[in-house]
Amino acid sequence: MTITLTDRSADDIERAIREAGTQQGVGPVDILPPGAGWSISQNPKELAAFLRKMDVLGVRSMLEIGTQGGGLARFCGEVMGWDVVSIDYRDAATTQGYTFIKTYSRDYTPDREFDLIFIDGDHHYNGVRDDYNRFAPLAGKVVALHDVYGLHQCDGVKKFYEEIKGPGWVVELNYDWPLGIAWYAKPQAKAEAPKRTRKGAK
Ligand SMILES: C[S@@+](CC[C@H](N)C(=O)[O-])C[C@H]1O[C@@H](n2cnc3c(N)ncnc32)[C@H](O)[C@@H]1O
Q1: How many structural domains does the chain have?
Q2: Which of 3, 20, 66, 84 is least enclosed by beta carbons within 10 angstroms?
Q3: Could you tell me the residue range of the domain that residue 37 belongs to?
Q4: Is 144 within 8 Å of 118 (Cβ atoms)?
């Protein structure tokens, strides 16, 4: 199935996420029939709002910690058009559209920087803290944490986020079934982001 974007607005990205399909049982809205789709383990509204902002900030590469099915990595690679590396100690259902590395995060030392570091691996307090300390310095533009709302046994992520949050942090939250993506853009990323012009303006 080929999924394409038209105007890359948040609505357009959300439509594409729903077309690809989110994981069964992640929230009350089960979009996929069992066994079908890309199994993106995200709330479509939160993810669309987040990806739109990343696009505007000029994000073009991502390191994802915690691949699971591979749906998010594939979406960011194939649909957003980013250069994506994703790591997990378990196999992913798909490795299409991105580079998969089977490893524990503590054993992975990237030799390059990524525009976006997306941390969604070990959700225990010590695990998310260690991943943040290890990978956040590699973020060229943005570091993000998934599941900061604390649902689905993610209270370790919530606790860690409460400790580090401060000016500049943004949380994407959709109260239909909140998971919460918290992100922080380095000041340089904002300065480099392309200026948006009004429609028809020169
Ligand atoms: C919530 S899922 C990731 C969902 C995925 N990011 C998405 O949006 O579709 C968390 C994944 O992290 C992986 N994981 C947990 N601890 C890890 C570790 N220390 N190193 C690498 N992967 C880990 C698990 O195997 C699991 O597949």
Answers
A1: 1
A2: 3
A3: 10-190
A4: yes
